[in-house]
Amino acid sequence: MKLYSYFRSSAAYRVRIALGLKGLPFDYAPVHLVKKEQQAPGYRKLNPDALVPTLVDDAGHALTPSLAIIEWLEETRPEPLLLPRAPLERAWVRSLALQIACDIHPLNNLRVLRFLVKEMGLAEAQKLAWQRHWVESGFAALEQRLAGDPHTGAFCFGDAPTLADVTLVPQMYNARRLDIDLTRYPTLMRIDAQATRHPAFSAAAPEKQPDAS
Amino acid sequence: MKLYSYFRSSAAYRVRIALGLKGLPFDYAPVHLVKKEQQAPGYRKLNPDALVPTLVDDAGHALTPSLAIIEWLEETRPEPLLLPRAPLERAWVRSLALQIACDIHPLNNLRVLRFLVKEMGLAEAQKLAWQRHWVESGFAALEQRLAGDPHTGAFCFGDAPTLADVTLVPQMYNARRLDIDLTRYPTLMRIDAQATRHPAFSAAAPEKQPDAS
Fold first, then answer.
1. A213: distance to nearest CA of chain B, Å?
2. Is the ipTM of this complex over 0.95?
3. Separation CA B48–CA B33 (nearest Å)
C-alpha cells in the first residue's frame, strides 16, 4: 500500500497511526501542502478534492478521506480492532472521533486558514484566535465527555487504542503548535501521554516522517 | 426513539432521512438553534457539544453526531442497508458522505457563521461569499467524482439510496438557500431530484417538520 501524506496533516497522521496499530507496512508518498502539490493534476486524479491523505491499496484503488480509510482497514484488516464490538460502544467511539474530525479539524484546515487570510482579509492574530477558539471549545466538550464517562480508561475507550485515540493524538499535536494551554483538559492530556508511548503512535509522529522539515 | 432536531439543520435532516428509510418511527423534539436552545443546560447534558441532532434510544441512551447515529442504525436496524456490502464500495459511499460532512458542512454551521460575523468582524456579504465558496468548491469535486464513477446510478451509488444520498440531499437544500447555481452540478441535481421523490426523503424535508417556520 502507498500513503499520500504530509507530515503535519492531522488527517494523514490518523491513517499513519491506524496502519501502524494494524501492523501494515506502506510506502510513504509525500505531498507538500504548503507548496500546493495537492493541486497538481496527477494528484487530483487520485483525489479530486485535493486533500491528503489518499491510500492506494495493492490493487491500485485510491481511498480517501481518513475516516473512510480507517473504517475500510477495520473491515479488511480487523486485528487489532479499533472499534469495540457492541453497537452502542461503537457509536460512542465514532462520536468522539467525529467530534474532532467534523467539529474541530475542518475549521483549522490549511486551505480554510488560507482563505480566511487571503480572501476574507483576516489578520494573522485573528487567524490564530479563530484556530484556538475551535480547538478550545471542542476540547472543552471532549474533556467533559471523556472525564464523565465510565468507559474512559488508559485510552479514550478502555485500555487499548481505538479510533478515538487515533483522532485525538493528531489534534493534540496541532493544539500544541497553537500554544494552547492543555492543562485545562487533564483527561485529554493523560490519554495523549499514554498513547504517545505506544510504538504505533510514536512512529506516526510528524517529526518521524520522511518529509518532516 | 426521540430525535432532538432543528428543521433547518443539515445534520438533523440526515438522521430524519435515515430513520425514514429504515421505517423507524420517532418522537420529534425541536431545539431552536437561532434561539440558542442548544445551549440550555438540560440539552447540554445530552449533548455537551451543544449541537443537533441527538437521538435518544428506547433505553435512554443519547447518541450523537449524525454519522455515528446513522452507522449505529445501520448496525442495529440493517434493513434496508444504507451502505453496500463490499468493503471498497462501503469506503466509496462513506467517502462521498464524509466529503460533505467534513469538508463542506462544518464550515457553514450556524455557530461558525456567527463567530465569523461577531468575533472576526466579517460583513454579511463576506459571510455569504464564504458560505458559497465551500459549497461550490466541495460540489465541484463531488460532481467530478460522481460523474466519473461507474457505480453512480439513479442514486449516488446504484439505484437505491445510501448514506451518500442521505448526506447529499440536505446539503443541496442548504445550497439552494444560498442561491447557488446548481446547474454546474448536473449529476448532483439529477440525484437530488430522484431522491426527493422518495417518501423517506420527502417526509424529512425541513418544511415538513413540526418546528418549521
1. 27
2. yes
3. 15
